[in-house]
Amino acid sequence: MTLPNMLQITSLLSACRAGTLTPTDLVREVSARADAYAAKDPAVWISRVPMERLLARAAELEKLPAADLPLYGIPFAVKDNIDVAGLPTTAACPAFAYEPRESAEVIKRLEAAGAIVIGKTNLDQFATGLVGMRSPYGQPHCVFNADYVSGGSSSGSAVAVAAGLVSFSLGTDTAGSGRVPAAFNNIVGLKPSRGVLSTYGLVPACESLDCISVFAGSTSDAWEVERVAGAADARAPFSRTLLPRSLPLTTFRFGILPESERFFDGNEANAALYAQAIKRLEQLGGTPVELDFAPLKETAALLYSGPFVVERLAAIKGFYHSHRKDMDPTVGTILDGAANYTATDVFDGIYRQHALQQIAQRMWDKFDVMLLPTAPRIVTKQEVIEQPIAANSLLGAYTNFVNLLDMAACAVPAGFASDGLPFGVTFVSPAFTDEDLTALAGRFHEALGEGIGVARTEKPLVSEKQDGPSSERVLLAVVGAHLKGFPLHWQLEKEHAVLRETTLTAPDYRLFALPDATPPKPGLVRERGFAGAGLEVEVYELDATGFGRFVASVPQPMSIGRITLASGKEVCGFLCSEAVARSGTDITSTGGWRSYMQEK
To answer: What whole-number distance in Å separates Cα of residue 363 and Cα of residue 555?
Structure first.
């Protein structure tokens, strides 16, 4: 069987299960491809699994039913700050290298699913950088032009996928290292929610922020890898169980940069491609909403221009103090900066991080996801040589804030400029929305109509998300104690309800302040023929399961019925027994519960 240029998981699995392809065929082909590509770019790999071990692994798999393993025979690469038993872990620093006693937890899970490790890939030393230029093992380049950077720090991992050498690869992402290289090489970069993929067996950069990330040709492939590899792990201090949260996938709001905040460092082609991306997402059912980028920008500055650099030093402090001279000069200089901060500075930085998280959390009331450029523009290797810090900072303009604010992100291609260089955008959403996030990003990627990787001959194989809670959404109007800022609003937050609009009811509703209610609450009743001004309500969207739990908690005399809004649309909402409501005080003239409580 002749393999396609891009080794997408779905197509390889189908061939293996049909008996037209074997793991032995795959390891021989990918090894030959890696050898051939080394003539174009010798800096992709730091180490590779010897052929005899690959063949032995393939033979083991061929004794098992292909249908039983979700990643049967699928070849993948691993960033060389993640442990793989039998290969050294270098973190791109020869003096640091060691032989791990066991593989990282994510590697174990992927191998148990049938995947085959091909080798370890190059990176910015100690995962410190976004350029892919800070390694003594060479500097991988953009697959489209050798004068340009591959992006980092997961440089070799991205190139290995984009060049068709493996089906997927693992990177890491603290400041954008799993997204920037994806944009520069026309592939997908999925940064899961923090802690969902165990970091046991990872050389940390900033342990409280680090994420193991996934590069692939499609969002479907990337999500499948996360699904298989994800699990809580008590050995990883920041590990978390993925508790899925839903996003609307057909009609949704997406945050965009106001034109005044769109920074592309003079690259007008990328500015136009971002505007096109906004239009494309509108065509898929989205409504653009301008976001305030200022708090995100301030958060980003904390990572490298603030006390969080101390955490980078903490990760390798013993090695730093004894081997500073053996480190990449730029990486060493960054870590030197940790000496400028006191313990007080660190805590001040943490306090500010949490304050900014509160601000960012309120953004999700206005939109469901963000659509941002992945980077303003790609830079040349010469630019990095001349200005190593400034060039790196440029690339993190739209990525550095994401982990600090506990968000998930998925970078996807968004077209090419006339010079043949790619542009990418990133979908950003709240933590634990990973599956729906990749589904929405996948729809955008598919609608782009472009081929993936360097060959650009094959389009992403994207499977639509049809089932599950995201396809069953309920609109609920609240009028009293569940309004934002009132005592029972936490019940909506518990079910991850999303504010859709603040509006008015139809004119024929009255509102009463109920007697002896704890906490204070109103009762809403409909009076046919009454011609009022309408009453203020907030309309929230919940998934069907969450709505069911919420309804079960509603006490008498309240009930959930149908409420007509001023627009004529009907939604679910709180109604009250008319007899109980009219025993209270008629407050209809105030216009709503919030106004009434403010007047008291």
So the answer is: 31
Instruction: Give the global pTM.
Output: 0.82
Q: How many CB atoms lie within 10 A of CB 393?
A: 16
pLDDT at 472: 63
What pLDDT sits at residue 182?
Answer: 98
Residues annotated as catalytic (active site), given as ranges: 79, 153, 177
Beta bridge partners of 121: 45, 79
Q: Exposed (0-12), middle (13-18) or buried (19+): which is 85, by Cβ within 10 Å?
A: middle
Blockwise average pLDDT, block size 10, the chain, 600 residues: 92 95 98 98 98 98 94 98 98 98 97 97 98 98 98 98 98 98 98 98 96 98 97 94 88 96 98 98 95 96 84 95 97 95 94 96 95 98 97 97 98 98 98 96 96 96 52 83 93 83 94 91 93 94 81 76 90 88 94 92
Give exposure, 119-128, as e/b (b: 16+ Cβ within 10 Å).
bbbbbbbbbb
The whole-number pLDDT of residue 463 equals 60
Q: Cα–chain-centroid distance for residue 12?
A: 26
90: its two tokens: 């270098």
Residue 281 backbone phi and psi in degrees, to 5: -70, -30
Query: Residue 342 is encoded by which pair of tokens?
Result: 């006191």
Query: Do 46 and 122 form a contact (C-beta atoms < 8 A)?
Result: yes
Concatenating the DSSP letter of every residue in 469-486 gives GGGSEEEEEE-STTSTTS
Distance CA 506, CA 551 (A): 23
Q: How many CB atoms lie within 10 A of CB 237?
A: 12
Pairing verdict, β 473-478 and 536-543: antiparallel
The amino acid occupying position 176 is G
Which backbone phi and psi does 322 adopt, to 5 degrees? -100, -15
Residue 553 CA, chain-centre distance (Å), reads: 33
Cβ–Cβ < 8 Å for 112, 127: no
Residues 6 or more apart whose Cβ sits within 8 Å of residue 291: 255, 256, 257, 258, 363, 366, 367, 370
Eight-state DSSP code of residue 94? G
DSSP string for 167-184: SEEEEEESSSTTTHHHHH
Cα separation, 91 vs 97, in Å, equals: 7
